[in-house]
Amino acid sequence: MSVGIPLVLVSGFLGAGKTTFLNSIFDNFPDRRFGIIVNDFGDLGVDAAEINAADGRHVSELNNGQIFCSCLSGSFINSVTDYADLDIDYLLVEASGLAKPSPLMDIINGIKQINGDKFRYYGMISLVDAGSYLELSEVLTAVDEQIAYSDLVLVNKADTADAGRLAKTEMKILSVNPEAEVVRTKYGRISPELFLGLKEKIVLPRADRRFAGWGSQGRPVPLLFKSEGSLERSELEAFIKSPGGEFYRMKGRLDTTDGEVFVDCTVNSLELRNETGKTGVEKGLVIILPADDNVINSVKKRAKALFESVV
After folding, report:
1. DSSP string for residues in the chain
2. pLDDT attached to residue 204
3. What is the rounded distance in angstroms from the CA atom of residue 273 to the CA atom of residue 135?
4. C-alpha to C-alpha distance for 95 and 91, rounded to whole angstroms
5. Straight-line distance from the first to the last Cα atom of the chain, in angstroms, rounded to the nearest whole number
6. Where is the CobW/HypB/UreG nucleotide-binding domain positioned along the sequence (predicted)?
7. Boundaries of every domain in the chain
8. For position 1, what pLDDT does the model report?
9. Count of Cβ atoms closer than 10 Å to residue 247 Cβ
């Protein structure tokens, strides 16, 4: 391993499996010391609590934005710098599912200006959901922008898609980034050899305007729903199955009449599971929606009977 701490970015649209991927890396390398920065688009940190805690892992959060945006990039550079004097083998950054990494070169240069050679950029790994990538890439530029700046693309949940869809997905990925290594996987798993094979990368400037803006559906809108008391489990189940309009992501922890639950929903999967043992974690439900006033108002109206506040 070269001098300096390897810095690896992990991207992927909402629900593609980034946190699951990170936990699989930790399982593969129990003796390695990791620094982890988790970036959530909304102001409720959800993913950091899902990182498997262990000795030698240092987790920090950056919420309410995405790390490549000017509103948060300075804080991201400072967060990386905070790890400079820690005894870690890797610094892994889970970017928001809505990350737009076009300013990547400026970010890496900013890290280098402050820290010199303390960190070495080992590239970006992007996860795509085999079941939804083709449709999402047609309406949101961030989906393909993440792929364009990645070195390794994991076609995750490959066991849920047929051969035709997988082939089309891989062809589309390579049309966006012909130089990317594309690997099929499930549960976010890759071989230890593939991870250890990551090498230092040089980030070059690009005059690429394909990914300007957010796409035909606009910049997604996060809503945070909170309730002071326990929710009726049956009413919560009914809501997540039909929140009042299409959504990109629904995630959070809530108290119900049947105990604490973890909600984890994407455009093509719904999960509501019992959860215990998460202490000190803020309760609430984040829903990320298309920038459509009709959809937003419909979801708010549907949630009004269930939740006490919307942020």
Report:
1. --SSEEEEEEEESTTSSHHHHHHHHHHH-TTS-EEEEEE-SSSS--GGGGS---TTEEEEEE-SS-TTSHHHHHHHHHHHHTTTTS--SEEEEE--TT---TTHHHHHHHHHHHHTTSEEEEEEEEEEETTTHHHHTTT-HHHHHHHHT-SEEEEESGGGS-HHHHHHHHHHHHHH-TT-EEEE-STT---HHHHHT------------TT-S--TT-S-EEEEEE-SSPBPHHHHHHHHH--SS--SEEEEEEEETTEEEEEEEETTB--EEE----TTPPPEEEEEE-S-HHHHHHHHHHHHTT-SEE-
2. 81
3. 27
4. 13
5. 45
6. 6-183
7. 5-196, 221-310
8. 41
9. 20
> How much of the chain exceeds pLDDT 70, in percent?
93
Burial (0-12, 13-18, 19+ Cβ within 10 Å), 228: exposed
**Distance, CA of 185 to CA of 166 (rounded, Å):** 11
Q: Which segments of the chain have a pLDDT < 70?
A: 1-2, 42-49, 51, 53, 55, 207, 276-280
pLDDT of the residue at 134: 96
Q: Could you identify the residue written with the tokens 């309009």?
A: 245
The angle subtended at Cα 183 by Cα 178 and Cα 188, nearest 5°, is: 130
CATH 1.10.10.1760 fits 221-310, yes or no: no
Domain 5-196 is found in CATH 2.60.40.420: no
